[in-house]
């Protein structure tokens, strides 16, 4: 078999996206968002240690629309990663691999992440 007649590896243009594959990609993305959000948390801690002016500067950024958007995304990422991690624990135990169950648990992860994010925002604003 010559080099040019070898089959090409399948790619995203060949396969139709499925809920499980999209959630896997999203899980990785939220992991990155959690790392970035942790940097924001570290910046807040450093601003507290640096004094009132630094804290006021940080609070100004965190209170802006962009800072609020970052905090909302970080909060959703925490709850999505937690919910999907619990789902993976069931998979590690060999449960929930049936297509119907995998889709139901996927939608449950999305719903729980959204509900927990809304609950956290309500508590934060109260």
UniProtKB/TrEMBL annotation:
GO terms for biological process: tricarboxylic acid cycle. CDD domains: SQR_TypeC_SdhC (cd03499). Pfam families: Sdh_cyt. The chain crosses the membrane at residues 25-45, 65-86, 107-125. Its cofactor is heme. Part of an enzyme complex containing four subunits: a flavoprotein, an iron-sulfur protein, plus two membrane-anchoring proteins, SdhC and SdhD. The complex can form homotrimers. Membrane-anchoring subunit of succinate dehydrogenase (SDH). This is Succinate dehydrogenase cytochrome b556 subunit. It comes from Abyssibacter profundi. The gene is sdhC.
């Amino acid at each position: 078999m010559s080099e040019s007649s070898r089959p090409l590896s399948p790619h995203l243009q060949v396969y139709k996206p499925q809920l499980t594959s999209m959630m896997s990609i999203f899980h990785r993305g939220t992991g990155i968002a959690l790392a970035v959000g942790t940097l924001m948390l570290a910046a807040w801690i450093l601003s507290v240690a640096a004094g009132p002016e630094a804290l006021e500067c940080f609070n100004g950024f965190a209170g802006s629309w962009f800072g609020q958007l970052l905090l909302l995304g970080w909060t959703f990422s925490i709850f999505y990663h937690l919910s999907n991690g619990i789902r993976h624990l069931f998979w590690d135990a060999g449960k929930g691999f049936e297509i119907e169950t995998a889709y139901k648990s996927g939608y449950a992860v999305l719903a729980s992440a959204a509900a927990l994010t809304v609950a956290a925002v309500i508590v934060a604003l109260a």
